[in-house]
Amino acid sequence: MNEFVTQLLAYTVLGIVIGSGYAIAASGLVITYATSNVFNMAHGAIGMFMAFVYWQLAVGAQLPAVVALLLVVLVIAPLFGALVERSMMRRMTDAPVMVSLTVTVGLLVALIGMAQAIWPAQGRSVDEFFAGRGIQMGEVFVSGQQLLTLVLAVAVAGALYVLLARTRTGIGMRAIVDNRELLALHGAQPGRLSMFSWALGSSLAALAGILLLYEVALEYFGLTLLVINAYAAAMVGRLKNLPRTIAGAMVLGLLMQYYRFAVSEITGRVEVSEAVNSVLTGMRAALPTLFLFLVMLLLPLEKLRVGQIAGAAMVRVPSWRRTFFSAAVFLAVVGALAFTMAPQDVARLGTSIALATIMLSLVLITGYGGDVSLAQMTFAGLGGLIIVKLGIFPSVDPVSLLCIGAIVAAIGALVAIPALRLRGLYLGLGTLAFAFASDKLILENPVWGLSLGGAAVFQRPTILGVSLESETGFTLYVTMAFLLMSFTVLAIRRGRFGRLILASRDSQAACQTLGLNTTSTRVALFAVSAGLAGMAGALYGGMLVEAGPPEFAMFQNLPLLLLAVIGGITSITGAVIGGLFLGFQPMLTDAFPALAGIANLAIGAAAIALGRNPNGIAGISFNLGRRLTGRSATAPPPQEPEIEIAPEPEEVRLVGTP
Length: 658
What we know:
Elements lengths: L2 H34 L6 H18 L4 H23 L9 H22 L15 E4 L2 E4 H23 L1 H8 L4 H6 L4 H22 L8 H9 L1 H7 L5 H28 L4 H25 L15 E2 L4 H21 L2 H26 L7 H14 L8 H22 L4 H20 L12 E2 L4 E2 L2 E2 L3 H24 L1 H11 L1 H6 L4 H27 L1 E2 L9 H11 L4 H20 L4 H15 L5 H14 L4 E2 L23
Antiparallel strand pairs: 1-2, 3-8, 4-7, 5-6
């Protein structure tokens, strides 16, 4: 057997092994979604957290590896999944996609924070199962760890088929989404079945996290992301077809390894430039998310849901008089602080306002439009990249900001056109895939990215002969930009386009019945929000002076969204509150490094608590003030007359079972 065939066989075996791990993780994700209609964004974080628990038992407590594995997979993980379902997810079954995604993202961040608090960052490793043992297949050696992964993947697939197709429990699990009340009338217990489904899903996430542990180090973000790769496999089966999900996992595993094999062959035979090599390396890391995006593009167009037309209670839009008065007060307060605080504190204040400016884009697309975008910090990074790399913009001046906004808005429209055809959950996943691919292919690229070797330097402008190099001057400049963008967002909300956005969010079916083009409306909304984020990203970079890929990384989108929800994602005030929290949080963690995990845990917990209340702290404060004056703080949803249309519930079944 020649060397080429030997290498190809070795990569094939490794691809099947990795695909088996993805299949286990994706199967758990499908189980939870098909029985609760909630896509668990924290699925990867559960696998990560349980891998740390396994390390604690196997290494810290020195239990036998098999005993530690059984304790985690069969006891600890199922109990955790049941607790999550009982305390959080049972209320999410009929919740809007925005709410369920926000709550599960909050759980993801909380689990990362909990892992950071319990297990501070340090080198950790565990031995492979059956280390040194395996079988020889020709010239390829298959280790005991790889064999165990293959055997467990086959066992999980067989057990799930028997459970869902041949048992009363499995049939009840598949019937939960259709009609919980009718299922209860037939003697089943929907609550217990749902709890069992989440326990099973958590157990499979834990098993996948432990088996895939040997692909990356025991690290918070890397291991979470490794399990997130299984999302692409779940999308192949449209979150309900287990056979297709498993097939998709195998295809993904093989695709990743064949790509590695092809790159090694090319670079071994042909000398490539640094730019080409950086693209090949970035493509390898981004391949799972590109696969996810491709799968979503190939999915059939989502059917419109019809039903009762109802709006959500939102914070009242202030009058222009109150808006200008509030803006004047805000500018005066920031100015007073900027001229009296120490320079480092002024820089932190300006950074907070820049982050609040990025959150304005979330107010527009998520607060008003109802679509969850997990790429706004990425659009901000692209705005920063344009101003420091293109060379045509000398500094962060107003003209440059407008040009950057136009360029990033065009990029946002290109991302939205394919993603919005599926709406809801798929849009959130599509933006997540775009964010990660942008990290690996653009922002982290050593040739044209924000330079991994050293942070990019942003130039502060001189306007009308006045230099804004000082922290005070640039903070006031960022504040003025924030206020102008806030006026823009409020003007959109008050105008015809804003009414179209709200109507499309409340009922796309009703809008299309009236002849309105909801797709073009939402593409335009996505483009405008991306443009705002791009301009805000340039301001954020100018405030930091030096910024690199970590400041705009994919995971930065998560606290950005959560703190916008906590502050109040339907109002400008909420963006200010969220920006201040996010901007001043590093002061606490720098002073007390041990609290870094606690901060993430607190953010996640607060987002979970406020997930159903998009008005957040701002809305609570407005309600309190209005009650004291006898007025209502929120705009009531539409009252009678209401249009009743016979509902057509989305069918969520596990295909491939009777």
